[in-house]
Every structure is written in structure tokens, then in C-alpha cells.
């Protein structure tokens, strides 16, 4: 795909001034933006962003893990245009639906596992996880077990930013600002590298995976199974730093959920729609979730839409017990967003993108990513499909990390950004999640720029 040129240059300072005066940014220290105004991203094509000064940045984050089919896909633009003219809005509350909402639910039933046959629509992953909580509680209520309310989640998980979804998440810094709602507890995350560094001695990866899974069983025993409703997890923790669990982890977790009869929720907001080289992380790890929140790659981020895929056994319970499910958003099943999601899924199917990722581009990306492991700063390289992470460490032979205050990840991220590469930092883990359409020559450019920025970082901290 050709690279875009800026459509309107010369206005950078104007937009920066407006932004500085009036825009409160998500997950940003407002003071930092006063010191250094934001870069204004004005247009994009393929895997490249163009800023308001005409610089082109290689976007190895697919926006925020969402622009899976890349920028500038005309099918999606046209689908939005056509639908907005025909019917810009109608709801699904009053025994009504719209063609896009109906068609998208059928298409999702087709691409997700066979037992997930119904979709509840939201506008985001956060709302999807709020919906999860309402559905979990409603399910146990109609099953005559309303005391089953506790949802077990994991430390360092990310499930969204609303109060319920941030409570489900395991981000301490978020919990510090406002606390969490009751009936949510957090257990060990399957982060072998962090544990290995913390212990300062060898740690068998698979044994650690089993222990991390066991922490769920231990928590259920501690609370009493009659109180526990569900376990929620991302198949691969994304925002937590691309934490790929040991092979032993998921089989053990599945057994534990089945043994205790609690619901399994697989949060596919970042893993879904091809990122692992399968349509869903659920296929990659052979899970059978009862609820599956989705968003992001559903529309390749072109319009905000998310949802929850609901298992037949939950639907049956809701249908058989009767009564309303008292939950819904104005924009649930928004016809324009749904039309774009349909166009996106059809484009993925037509271009066979998931197969291309699995068989071709992801193996290439993973191979080249591991070459960065030769760099003196890189203590571990991990990744699956189009997910990748590089752990920056002070002493790679002995698994010794940098002091947190040194902000080495942030230093590296800033070098990347200055050198027209978007690679994120989560602590000292440099993470990527490129558009699925990224080509081998673009991966080569990424590796070259990443190596340069690792060198710059090394010099800067010497
Ligand atoms: N679940 C998962 C697994 C996510 O990655 C959400 C839920 C919430 O989705 P919404 O659409 O409400 O944002 C997410 C979102 C980051 C970052 O810094 C990650 C997300 C969102 C914003 C920033 O990596 N993930």
C-alpha cells in the first residue's frame, strides 16, 4: 500500500496550542504535555502514519492494538458511507434491530467458536467487560446461586478503564486512583520473566506456569466455591507487557475452571481477530470460554465497536428463566459501526489474512524479532503471531533489571518516536502489535530502526 502524504501542513503549532489549552489526554501526565506538546497525527496509509509536519512513522502498534487491517482500507470507508446515508442510527432496545446488527451477529457466530452463538454489542472493550460482569452475575442469579459473585482476575491484567473493567483489571496504578469495586480478587499472573528476575535464581518455566494456574485453585478454596462466579483473563496479556504464558498454564487453568464449575471469560479485546495467527487467542490455546469480550480488531479500530460473545449454556439460562436482562447502551449494535465491522471481517476473510499471518508474516516477524535478542540491552524476546516484546535489562546474564526510576523503557520509546517508529514501553518491556498487513520489507525497516534505538538508549544511559 502506498504511503500517504500530509493533507494539511503548517498548522502544527495551532493544533498543539488548542490541544494544550483544552484536551485532557487519557493515561497522560498533563504536565508532560505542557513541557512537550503532542505530535499531531494527520493521516495514514497501510502501516504508516503521517504527522502534521509531513514525517512518516512506522506504526508497529496498529494504533492501540486495533488497526489490524491497516490504514486506508476503502471497503471500510465505503461501508460507513453507505450505512450512514441509509440509516445512521437506530437502537435494539424495543424489539427492533437493524440489518447491520443482525448480519454482524451472524457473522460473529460464524468466526468465533461454535458454542458462542450470540453477540451483545457495546462501543468498547471496557463496556464489553462491564457487560461481562453483569452477565456473570445475572447467570448465577437465574441459576439460583446469587451468592456466587466473586470474579477472579490476574495481577497486571488490563480489562478497560471504566470502574468495573478497571477493577477487573489488575493494574495497581489504576486501583490507587479510586480503588476497586467489591467481589473482584486478583491472583498471580503467568509472567515467568518477571518472576525469574524477582527470585534471582533459576525457575522452571513450565513448573511456574502450573503454579500460576494453581493460584486460581487456591483462591477458590480460600473463598469457597459457592462464592466464586468466574475467572477472567486475556489469552496473552497485552497491555501488561505481552505476557506469553508458559505452555503448561492454560491447560491447567481450563481444568481448574471445569473442576470447580466456574465460568471462564477469555478477554479477546487485543488477542482477537488474527493477532495470534488464529482468529482468536481462544483457538490458539484451545479454550472454551463461556464469555468472550471483543473490540478493537473487530472494526480494525475504524469505528468504536465491541461486544461480548455469549455461550449457548448462558443464553439457555437467560431464555429459560425469563425476565429482562437490564443492561444496554445507546450505541449497542450501532448500525454504522456494525456495517464497518462486517466489511472488516469480510475483508479479512477475502484476503485470507489470518492464514497469511500464521504461515508467513508472523513467523518472519518472530524470527527477526529474536535477532534483537542479540543486543546487549535485551534480556528476553517473546511473542506470538503479531505480538512481540523485548525486555530491557541491566545484566542479561543474571536477569537483573534496571531500577524503575531510571525509566529506561520510556527513554527507548522516546528515541523510537523521534526516529519515526511507534514501539510502546510497558515499564522496561518494549512491545509491538503491528497491523496484520505488515509486509516483510516493513518488518526489516522495523528491525533496523529498533536496533538503532536500542543503541541510542544504551549510549544515553551509559
Ligand atoms: N481488554 C483488553 C484485553 C484490552 O487490551 C480493553 C479490554 C478495553 O478496551 P477499550 O476499547 O475500552 O479501550 C483493552 C484495551 C495500552 C492500552 O496502553 C491498551 C488498551 C487500551 C488503551 C491503552 O496498551 N487495551
Break the fold down into its secondary structure elements and pairings.
Elements: H1 12-22, H2 30-35, E1 41-45, E2 48-51, E3 56-59, H3 62-65, H4 74-86, H5 99-111, E4 116-122, H6 125-142, E5 150-154, H7 163-168, H8 172-176, E6 184-187, H9 192-199, H10 205-223, E7 228-233, H11 249-260, E8 263-266, H12 281-284, E9 291-294, E10 306-311, H13 312-321, H14 335-350, H15 353-371, E11 378-384, E12 387-392, H16 408-418, E13 421-422, E14 424-426, E15 429-432, H17 440-461
Parallel strand pairs: 3-13, 5-6, 5-7, 7-8
Antiparallel strand pairs: 1-2, 2-3, 4-10, 9-10, 11-12, 12-15, 14-15
Bound molecules: 3-[O-phosphonopyridoxyl]--amino-benzoic acid (PXG).
3-[O-phosphonopyridoxyl]--amino-benzoic acid binds next to helix 6.
Amino acid at each position: 500500500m502506498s504511503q500517504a502524504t500530509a493533507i494539511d501542513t503548517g498548522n502544527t503549532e495551532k493544533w498543539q496550542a488548542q490541544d494544550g489549552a483544552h484536551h485532557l489526554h487519557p493515561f497522560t501526565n498533563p504536565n508532560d504535555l505542557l513541557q512537550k506538546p503532542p505530535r499531531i497525527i494527520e493521516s495514514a496509509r497501510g502501516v504508516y502514519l503521517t504527522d502534521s509536519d509531513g514525517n512518516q512513522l512506522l506504526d508497529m502498534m496498529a494504533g492501540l492494538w486495533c488497526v489490524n487491517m491497516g490504514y486506508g482500507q476503502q471497503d471500510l470507508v465505503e461501508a460507513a458511507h453507505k450505512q450512514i446515508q441509509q440509516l445512521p442510527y437506530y437502537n435494539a432496545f424495543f424489539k427492533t434491530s437493524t440489518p447491520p446488527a443482525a448480519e454482524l451477529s451472524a457473522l460473529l457466530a460464524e468466526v468465533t467458536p461454535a458454542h458462542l452463538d450470540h453477540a451483545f454489542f457495546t462501543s468498547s472493550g471496557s463496556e464489553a467487560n462491564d457487560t461481562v460482569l453483569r452477565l456473570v452475575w445475572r447467570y448465577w442469579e437465574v441459576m439460583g446461586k446469587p451468592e456466587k459473585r466473586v470474579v477472579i482476575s490476574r495481577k497486571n491484567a488490563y480489562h478497560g478503564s471504566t470502574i468495573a473493567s478497571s477493577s477487573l483489571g489488575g493494574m495497581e496504578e489504576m486501583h490507587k486512583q479510586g480503588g476497586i469495586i467489591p467481589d473482584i480478587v486478583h491472583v498471580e499472573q503467568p509472567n515467568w520473566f518477571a518472576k525469574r528476575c524477582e527470585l534471582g535464581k533459576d525457575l522452571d518455566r513450565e513448573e511456574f506456569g502450573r503454579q500460576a494456574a494453581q493460584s486460581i485453585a487456591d483462591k477458590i478454596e480460600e473463598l469457597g466455591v459457592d462464592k466464586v462466579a468466574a475467572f477472567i483473563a486475556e489469552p496473552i496479556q497485552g497491555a501488561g507487557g505481552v505476557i506469553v504464558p508458559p505452555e503448561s498454564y492454560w491447560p491447567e487453568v481450563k481444568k481448574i475452571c471445569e473442576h470447580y464449575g466456574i465460568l471462564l471469560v477469555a478477554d479477546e479485546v487485543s488477542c482477537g481477530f488474527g493477532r495470534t495467527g488464529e482468529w482468536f487467542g481462544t483457538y490458539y490455546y484451545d479454550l472454551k470460554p463461556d464469555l468472550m469480550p471483543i473490540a478493537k480488531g473487530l472494526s480494525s479500530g475504524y469505528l468504536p465497536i465491541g461486544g461480548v460473545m455469549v455461550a449457548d449454556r448462558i443464553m439457555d439460562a437467560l431464555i429459560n428463566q425469563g425476565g429482562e436482562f437490564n443492561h444496554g447502551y445507546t450505541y449497542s449494535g450501532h448500525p454504522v459501526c456494525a456495517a464497518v465491522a462486517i466489511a472488516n471481517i469480510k475483508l479479512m476473510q477475502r484476503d485470507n489474512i489470518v492464514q497469511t499471518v500464521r504461515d508467513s508474516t508472523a513467523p518472519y516477524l518472530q524470527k527477526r524479532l529474536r535477532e534483537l535478542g542479540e543486543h546487549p540491552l535485551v534480556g528476553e524476546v517473546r511473542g506470538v503471531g503479531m505480538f512481540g516484546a523485548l525486555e530491557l535489562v541491566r545484566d542479561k546474564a543474571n536477569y537483573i533489571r534496571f531500577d524503575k526510576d531510571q525509566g529506561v523503557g520510556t527513554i527507548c520509546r522516546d528515541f523510537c518516536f523521534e526516529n519515526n517508529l511507534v514501539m510502546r514501553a510497558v515499564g522496561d518491556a518494549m512491545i509491538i502489535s503491528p497491523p496484520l498487513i505488515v509486509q516483510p520489507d516493513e518488518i526489516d525497516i522495523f528491525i533496523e530502526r529498533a536496533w538503532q534505538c536500542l543503541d541510542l538508549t544504551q549510549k544515553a544511559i551509559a
